[in-house]
TrEMBL record:
PANTHER family with a match to the protein in the record: ABC TRANSPORTER ATP-BINDING PROTEIN ALBC-RELATED
InterPro entries found in the cross-reference section: AAA+_ATPase, ABC_transporter-like_ATP-bd, ABC_transporter-like_CS, ABC_Transporter_VariousFunc, P-loop_NTPase
Protein name according to UniProt: ABC transporter ATP-binding protein
Occurrences of domain ABC transporter (ranges): 3-202
Taxonomy of the source species: Bacteria, Pseudomonadati, Bacteroidota, Cytophagia, Cytophagales
Keyword ATP-binding: yes
Gene Ontology molecular function: any one: ATP binding
Keyword ATP-binding found: yes
Organism: Aquirufa beregesia
Keywords attached to this entry: ATP-binding, Nucleotide-binding, Transport
């Protein structure tokens, strides 16, 4: 599939955060959105994921043959992990996974043991998400986004709060995703270097 951004612009009050952004993203490719703090990476990522609307322009999801995908279908094709996307803190990990399975945000057959093995963590089963460390919560978010196995994966500052071992775990998991369309908003050199393409937000000001 493809994501086509055409003349996307975003303005907050008097501030233009993105100007005339046009780009075609494709499956099997990975893209780094780069730029200094406050330059608009998260804003553009949310627009590309159709989580927020541009002030001008449009974002369209397309099949390989360029036929368009209905906008109400797009969210089912996306997984998204970001510091501002919260987990449900009052759940245990098992309850959270079951909830996401029911929402079809994770594969139906996924077990707690498989998930724990995947994220290389064996947290206390009765512990609430709110009592996990920030790094563990981040790793759970990333694990959910990766195991959702959606065609499009969006990550905003994915290795925030992760130690070196967990960062390397994430880098390895991204390298294993050969068919997905991956977009990572980041300033971290290691995250940018994971991606085949770089897009500087400063080119769209
Ligand atoms: N809802 C909003 N209302 C008003 N201004 C906003 C809103 N969201 C973002 N902004 C502004 O848009 C600009 C870009 O913010 P954004 O979070 O997209 O940048 P960023 O490049 O992701 O930054 P960082 O690297 O610090 O995460 C900032 O000036 C920010 O204050």
């Amino acid at each position: 599939m493809k994501i086509l951004a055409e003349h996307v612009e975003k303005k907050f009050r008097q501030e233009w955060v993105v100007r005339s952004f046009s780009y075609q993203f494709e499956s099997g490719q990975s893209y780094a959105l780069t730029g200094p703090n406050g330059s608009g990476k998260s804003t553009l990522l949310r627009i590309l994921a159709q989580y927020s609307l541009p002030t001008k322009g449009q974002v369209t999801f397309l099949h390989e043959d360029f036929s368009s995908i209905e906008s109400d279908q797009c969210h089912s094709l996306i997984s998204y992990a970001a510091p501002y996307v919260e987990l449900i803190e009052e759940f245990t990990l098992s309850e959270l996974l079951n909830f996401l399975i029911q929402l079809k945000a994770l594969p139906a057959q996924l077990s707690l043991a498989q998930f724990q093995e995947y994220i290389e963590l064996q947290p206390d089963k009765s512990k609430y998400i709110k009592n996990y460390s920030s790094g563990m919560r981040q790793k759970i978010k990333l694990g959910i986004a990766l195991m959702a196995d959606k065609p499009c994966m969006f990550f905003d500052e994915p290795t925030t709060n992760l130690d070196e071992k967990a960062k390397n775990w994430f880098y390895q998991k991204i390298k294993e995703q050969s068919n997905q369309l991956i977009i990572i908003a980041s300033n971290e050199a290691a995250e940018i270097n994971l991606c085949q393409h770089r897009i500087s937000i400063l080119d769209f000001k």
